[in-house]
Design brief:
A hairpin with a 2-residue loop joins strand 6 and strand 7. 21% of the residues lie in helices and 26% in strands. Helix 5 crosses helix 8. The protein starts with a strand and ends with a strand. By secondary structure, the chain is of the alpha+beta class. The longest helix has 18 residues. The strands form four sheets. Strands 8, 9, 10, 11, 14 and 15 form a six-stranded antiparallel beta sheet that branches. Strands 1, 2, 3, 4 and 5 form a five-stranded antiparallel beta sheet that branches. A two-stranded antiparallel ribbon has the order 6-7. The chain is flat, with a radius of gyration of 23 Å.
Length: 323
């Protein structure tokens, strides 16, 4: 079976019309059951289409292009959930080794029976760029790369524990719910930047090379800028790795002489150094901010992120970037 995410569906297109057209290219498992608002493209719809057999894939893709629909294909070796490919047995000197390719890190981390064990072997492929990229002008985007020790996001979420071993992730992690890939949420980016703008004297003093008299917290309170999720575009790590693990070593104890007790290491997942994220910003209203003013805000935003970092544990070095 083949699955496609469909985005940027014009609201003038009906489900019945789309369903009828798609049947010219292959056999649908079921009729298109729903449209929902496209959260990444305001004013458009999105849906999922599932083929039991796609006889004319090129024709299907070209049809979507003519209709300006963004069609993103799921991997053919995915199971029905599109999350974990079927394990394969490989024999090596009379030993059976079970290997499985991780296609959705979020599912593997939270729902798979191993709860993320071995997730560091995940190999990044930027298959979902059309879901993330809004084709904004260069002055409305920038790219930053993680540095040592890496990036930690979503650590406050609960994470299931394995019963068979203590060597398990004990903190949560933030993934995009559609693709299962790590992201830095737009709300987190906005919140961190806003906290700096809440100190106008500090802003004027420290960022005098970027600060303009018209810059103030109104840009956040009035919602003048859209802060998109930052997504991974590339990695410089061997075998396209983006994940690693680390430990928090807890020495605290209420027991007598507790500080001399055995430490309690807590394992957590992180984004490795040398992973590049793309940040995107857009004026919420063409009449609210001119292109030049928006550009100046974005230049200031970039410098603040470089100085303060993003995510958790920035006070010990996590979440720091370089250009």
């Amino acid at each position: 079976m083949l699955f496609f995410f469909l985005n940027k569906i014009d609201k003038s297109i009906s489900k019945n019309d789309l369903d009828k057209e798609f049947r010219n290219f292959g056999n649908l498992k079921k009729p298109i059951g729903y449209f929902k608002d496209d959260t990444r493209n305001s004013g458009f719809n999105s849906t999922i289409v599932e083929f039991t057999a796609l006889k004319d894939e090129i024709g299907f893709i070209n049809f979507c292009k003519r209709k300006k629909i963004v069609a993103t294909k799921r991997k053919e070796n995915s199971n029905q959930s599109g999350l974990i490919s079927k394990p394969q047995e490989q024999k090596k000197e009379n030993e059976i080794i079970i290997s499985s390719k991780i296609s959705n890190p979020s599912f593997y981390f939270y729902k798979n029976k191993d709860y993320g064990k071995g997730i560091e072997s995940f190999e990044f492929e930027n298959n979902f760029i059309e879901l993330y990229d809004f084709n904004l002008p260069e002055k409305q985007i920038f790219k930053l790369t993680t540095i040592y020790p890496g990036l930690l996001v979503g650590s406050g979420y609960n994470h299931p524990k394995l019963k068979s071993t203590n060597d398990d992730f004990q903190l949560g992690f933030l993934f995009d719910h559609t693709t299962g890939l790590p992201i830095i949420s737009g709300s987190s980016i906005k919140g961190m930047l806003r906290s700096v703008f809440e100190e106008p004297d500090f802003l004027k003093d420290v960022y005098s090379n970027y600060y303009k008299d018209y810059m103030n917290i109104d840009v956040f309170e009035k919602g003048q800028i859209i802060f998109y999720d930052a997504y991974i575009v590339s990695t410089q790590n061997q075998n396209n790795k983006i994940f690693g693990s680390d430990y928090i070593t807890n020495h605290f104890s209420n027991e007598e002489n507790g500080m001399f007790k055995e430490p309690n290491p807590i394992k957590f997942l992180k984004v490795l150094p040398a992973v590049t994220f793309k940040f995107q910003f857009k004026s919420a209203d063409k009449n609210s901010l001119s292109e030049n003013i928006l550009k100046e805000y974005i230049e200031l935003f970039k410098q603040i992120i470089l100085d303060f970092g993003l995510g958790a544990k920035t006070n010990v070095g996590y979440g720091k970037f370089q250009e």
